[in-house]
Amino acid sequence: MDYRSSEAVAGPRAEDVLPSSVNAAVKVVIVGGFGVGKTTMVGSVSEIRPLTTEETMTQAGVGVDDLAGVERKTETTVAMDFGRISLNDQLVLYLFGTPGQERFWFLWDGLFEGALGAVVLIDTRRLEVSFDVVGRLEERSVPFVVAVNAFPEAPAYPIAELRAAMDLPESVPMIDCDARDRGSSRDALLTLVRYLHSLITVTPETP
After folding, report:
1. For the stretch 115-146, what's the b/e string if a residue is b when 16 or more beta carbons lie within 10 angstroms of its beta carbon?
2. DSSP class of residue 30?
3. What's the pLDDT at 201?
4. If we measure between CA atoms, which residue out of 95, 100, 110, 174 comes closest to residue 130?
5. Would you state the pLDDT for residue 3?
6. How confident is the model over 172-190, as a mean pLDDT?
7. How far from chain centre, in Å, is Cα 120?
8. Which of 16-30, 44-58, 105-119, 141-155 ranks highest by mean pLDDT?
9. Contact, 116 vs 76, CB < 8 A?
10. Is the dihedral of CA 161, 164, 165, 166 positive or negative?
11. Whole-model pTM?
12. How far is residue 184's CA from residue 162's CA, in Å, rounded to a whole number?
C-alpha cells in the first residue's frame, strides 16, 4: 500500500527563495540593551517573514530585568531574531538580533560566530545600558556602528555629545535611526557594510 499523500508538499514561499544572482552572503548582528528596538529593526527591514523568539514577560523577571524606562514592555526576545535583506542582486545580509537582557547574554557567543560586524542600537533615555554591549564587542574585536534609535519623547542630543558619552573613537560611525522605518533601518545596515569595506580596503602606498 502506498502511504504517500497525493497532496503536493508545500515548498518555501516565493519571496523566501534566495535569488540565483546572489553570490555573497554576510552575517551581521543587531545588538543593544533591553528594549532598544532590535526585534523591531529586524522585522521592519527583513524581506522574508522574520523569525522571532519573543515571549511574554512573567513574574520570573521581576527584580532581575531592569525595566526602567520600558515599564510598558510586555514581551522580550529569549533567544534571537532572524531576518534577511538583499542590498543588491549579488549581496545578501543575514540578520541576527540578540536578546537584550543580561541573563541571556550567554547566547551571544553562538550568535556572533561567523558575524562580520554589528549594529549597536541605543536609546538616549537609557544610554547606560549600551556601555556593556559596546565593551563586549570591543573585547571580541567585532567591528560595529552605532545607531541612535528614535523613540517618542526621548531626549535628542548631538551626535558629538553621544559619542563623547560613550567614549567612541571618531572612526566608529554613529548615525540617527528609526528602527520602525524600513528605509532608515536599511541605511543603518548600509553604513555598517560601508564601514566593513573601509576596514578591508588597503590604500596603496605612495611611491
Report:
1. bbbbbbbbbbebbebbeebbeebeeeebbbbb
2. E
3. 75
4. 100
5. 44
6. 96
7. 7
8. 141-155
9. no
10. positive
11. 0.76
12. 19
